[in-house]
Amino acid sequence: MTTGPTAGKADVLLALHAGPGFVLPNAWDAGSARILEQAGFPAIATTSAGIAWSLGVPDGVALDRDTMLEHVGRIVAAVGVPVTADLEAGYGDTPDDVGRTVALAADLGAVGCNLEDAATGGLFGIDEAVDRLAAARAAAPGGTFVLNARTDTYFAGTTGDAFDETVERAVRYLEAGADCVCVPGVVEKDTIRRLAAAIPGPLNVVAGLANVIDAPTLFSLGVKRVSLGGGLARAALSLLERAGRELLDSGTLGFLDGAIAYAELQRRFGS
């Protein structure tokens, strides 16, 4: 069994899924992770999109496993709260590859991960996706490791009925060892409510990706975990672009209104 601080953090993260619902913000570097921790979030996720954009490349496996894990490790090391890693589809063609990726993330101190059931070619067949999740569970540390199984039935599309296939995949993924099921791209409140009722485990919805439903409303629909994906990174980069345009167009400094003072950031990052 896993012991020590990492095991305790994993238990904290898992316990959040049994509560009334929680927001899991996504950090893209050590600095953003520390700011989110200081804001009071009890756990943090990484964002593959945000990490990719911070390196000037697009999301969607533009980064190799080693590069992504390097940045995950920096985020884990920067904070004291539990961190769950966005590992995209597991960085490999085989279940063994996925297992290796999960083991490496756990070695860095991540206490959970998000795994997708789609790659550039579209959705994996359900049996293949289940095998990949089973390999992830087998490779995870003994004790608690929070495995979030993402299905892209709504985000990437499916040839069948999206609701029925989502529920079928969710059931299979939970049976394979997932602790939570993530369904990005679903936008209708009634559909979210029906998914929460039909899936026999905690439901994770990504807010701000294809919907703008606020977290309290999502909780009222039965969602247990609300993550942001690359939403916070997009907001930060959008502010940077607006600031740059203001500087270029007028040379004024209105973008600094409300900015954290230099001395305050020094204090925060020095503690």
Give the arrangement of secondary structure elements:
Elements: H1 5-16, E1 22-24, E2 26-27, H2 30-39, E3 44-46, H3 48-54, H4 65-78, E4 83-86, H5 95-107, E5 112-116, E6 118-119, E7 122-123, H6 126-139, E8 146-150, H7 162-175, E9 180-182, H8 189-198, E10 203-206, H9 215-220, E11 225-227, H10 231-249, H11 262-270
Task: Describe the protein's architecture and organization.
The protein has 271 residues and is an alpha/beta fold. It has a single domain (5-231), classed as Phosphoenolpyruvate-binding domains (TIM Barrel, Alpha-Beta Barrel), CATH 3.20.20. Helices cover 47% and strands 13% of the residues. The protein has eleven helices and eleven strands. The chain has a nine-stranded parallel β-sheet with strand order 1-11-10-9-8-5-4-3-2, with helices on both faces. Strands 6-7 form a two-stranded antiparallel ribbon. Strand 9, helix 8 (189-198) and strand 10 (203-206) form a beta-alpha-beta unit. It is globular and about 55 Å long. 41% of the residues are buried. The mean pLDDT is 95.
